[in-house]
Amino acid sequence: MPTPDPPPHAEAPADHPLEDELAQALPDRRTTLPVLIRRWALRLIPVILLGAAGYVLWRDYHDLAFADVAAEVRRWGHRAILGALALSAVSFLLMGVVEKVGLRWMGARLPWAPTLATAFIANAIAHSLGANLLVSGAVRARLYDRYGVGLTQVAGATLFQGFSFAVGIATLAGAGLLLASPQALAASAIATPVARTTGAVLLAAVAAYLLTCALHRTPLHAFGRTLALPSPGKALVQLSVGAADNATAAAIIWILLPPGTVDYLAFVGAYAIACVAGLISTVPAGAGVFEGTLSALLPRAPAASLAAAFLGYRLAYFLLPLAVALLALLGDTLRRPRRR
Fold it and tell me: In this structure, what DSSP letter does residue 317 have?
C-alpha cells in the first residue's frame, strides 16, 4: 500500500473558530510597508482591468442588437447546447479527480462519491463568487467535517487544487501559443513572436515546477509555515488533469462559435490570458474582465457570435452549476440536524 505524502503542516488547534483556523493554514499577511504598498497596487490593478474591459465591451457591443445575439443562439442547435453542458460536466469531474489526489496528498482517504460531490459544490460556488481559495476552502471544511478531515487537510487540498489550475492553464496556454500556426494566430491579436516567447516561458515555468517537485524532497519553509511539495507523480497529475480541465472549459466557448472563427490552439492561448486577467481583477467570476480581454484578443470574431458564446459559457459553466450546488448545499443543511 503506497505511503501518502507527508502533510504540509500540523493540524490547527481545535478550539479556534473556523475562519481563524483556515487563515492559519494559509500564508501570513504582515503589515510591513512593502506589503502595504503591494496591497494598494493590487487594489488598483482590478480597477484598471475593469475599466479597460468596460471600454472594450462598450466599443465592441454597444450597437449590437438583441435579435443578432438571439439568431446566434438559435444557430447553435441541440448538438452544440448538449455539447456545452457535457463539457461543463467533464470539467467538474476532472476537478473532482484533482480533489481526490489532493486529499490523499494530505493523508485523507475518502470514497469517491463524497469527494466528487464536495468538489463540485465547492468549485461551483467559488467560481461564481470569487475569492476561490477562501470560499471553496470554507465549503470544503463544512462538508468534509463529518468525515473527520481536518482543517489543515482541507487547506492543503484547496491549495493543491489551486496549483493544479495554475500549472494546467500554463501548460495549455504554453502549448497552444507554441503550436498554433502563424495563420491561426493571425485570427487573434497575439503577434506570433509574442505568442512563441510567452508559450516558451510558460512551459519552462511548468518544467521548473515539475523538476522542483522531483528534486526538492525536503519541506519548504515560507511565510512561517512548512510545506511539503507533491511527489513527482502527483505533480504530473496536477499538470495533466489541470490542462485537460482548462482545455475542456475553453472548448465550451469554442464549440459555440461559428465553425472556422479561430483555430482551437490559438483560441486556448487567448482563453488562458483572459482567465488570468479575470482572476487578477478579483471581480466575481471575472465577469466583464474575462469577456473584455477575450474580445480584445479575438478581434476577427463576429461580435454577435462572441456575445452569444459568452452567454452560453456563463450559463453552462457558472450559473447552472451554481444553482445545482446551492440546492445541494441547502439540502445538506436541511438534512444535517437529523444526522446528529
Answer: I
Tell me how far apart the alpha carbons of residues 223 and 33 are, in angstroms, rounded to a whole number.
Answer: 16
**In terms of pTM, does the model score above 0.90?**
no
Q: How far is residue 147's CA from residue 140's CA, in Å, rounded to a whole number?
A: 11
**Residue at 98: amino acid letter:** V
- Confidence category of residue 58, pLDDT binned at 50, 70, 90: low
Let me know: does 136 contact 92? Beta carbons within 8 Å: no
Question: Is residue 152 within 8 Å of 9, Cβ to Cβ?
Answer: yes
Alpha helices in the chain (DSSP H): 18-25, 33-61, 66-105, 112-129, 132-144, 151-179, 182-185, 192-215, 232-256, 264-281, 289-297, 303-314, 320-339
CB 171 within 8 A of CB 206: yes
Under DSSP, the state recorded for 310 is H
Residues pairing with 225 in the sheet: 222
Q: Strand pairing partners for 85?
A: none
Cα distance between residue 216 and residue 333, in whole Å = 43
Which of 128-142, 184-198, 326-340 is most confident?
184-198
Residue 9 confidence class, pLDDT cut points 50, 70, 90: very low
Would you list the domain boundaries of the chain? Answer: 31-339
* Least confident segment among 35-44, 104-113, 153-162: 35-44
317, 88 Cβ separation under 8 angstroms: yes
Q: How many residues does the chain have?
A: 340
Q: Is the pLDDT of residue 11 over 60?
A: no
* Upper half-sphere CA count for residue 173 (Cβ side, 13 Å): 25
Contacts of 73 (CB under 8 A, 6+ apart): 308, 311, 312
User: Does 14 have pLDDT greater than 50?
Assistant: no
